[in-house]
Design goal:
Layout (H helix, E strand, L loop, with lengths): L2 E3 L9 E3 L2 H9 L7 E5 L5 E9 L4 E9 L9 E6 L5 H11 L4 E6 L9 H22 L6 E2 L3 E2 H11 L4 E5 L6 E2 H8 L6 E5 L7 H9 L3 E4 L7 H12 L1
Helix pairs in contact: 2-3, 2-7, 4-6
Length: 242
Amino acid sequence: MPRFYCPTPLNTGQQLDLPAGAARHIQVLRMQPGDTVTLFSGDGGEFEATIERMGRSDVGVTIGAYSPVEREARRTVHLAIGMPANERMDWLVEKATELGVASIQPLMTERTVLRLDGERAAKKTAHWQSVAVAACEQCGRNRVPVIHPVISLSSWIKRVATEGPPGTRYLLSLREGSRPLQDLMLDSGRTGTDVTFLSGPEGGLGTAEEAPAVAAGFAPVSLGARILRAETASLAALTLMA
């Protein structure tokens, strides 16, 4: 059954017009009155809904039964990533959403190729949020991860040092002495406290960038002997937590 994100309070028996994006998708699928879809608002759980009316650019539905089903990861995992170049950030957002990430913080770092600020940064953030929504519709998640506004690594580290995020903090690093993440997982188990991963862009974070992260409580960890691409490393870490 097709699934659509509907960011508005939903209640059984309610009649409403679907958001423009969902309405267009239903029309592309050539669905008809009487067909059923699944709606989720992002607050958890999902509703069955029946199509009642098909307009030229709008679709009206009646909300049916509620299901409290959840498909979230066992841990709340946040990802702070030095943005990879080209379309790899889109791919990263999509796959991280499928793997259950709770939030993504795009970072500008010393080696970041993609440079964003002002209106362009806001448009990119909105685009990545829409990528996360589409991934939730596809994979069955009922909670949409938050894509935070783009910020510099140095500014984010300063904020983290005083405000959070809470829980365990890991720095994906190639530096000597980094502990294998799998070993730490065996030591601490796979459930419990929130986890935040900090990962660099192509080429990783510089030594001068890693130092303040470590000072802010990020424990350097490795993912094995092979050097992974920036987006691969982040997804490998998420997979261990899924």
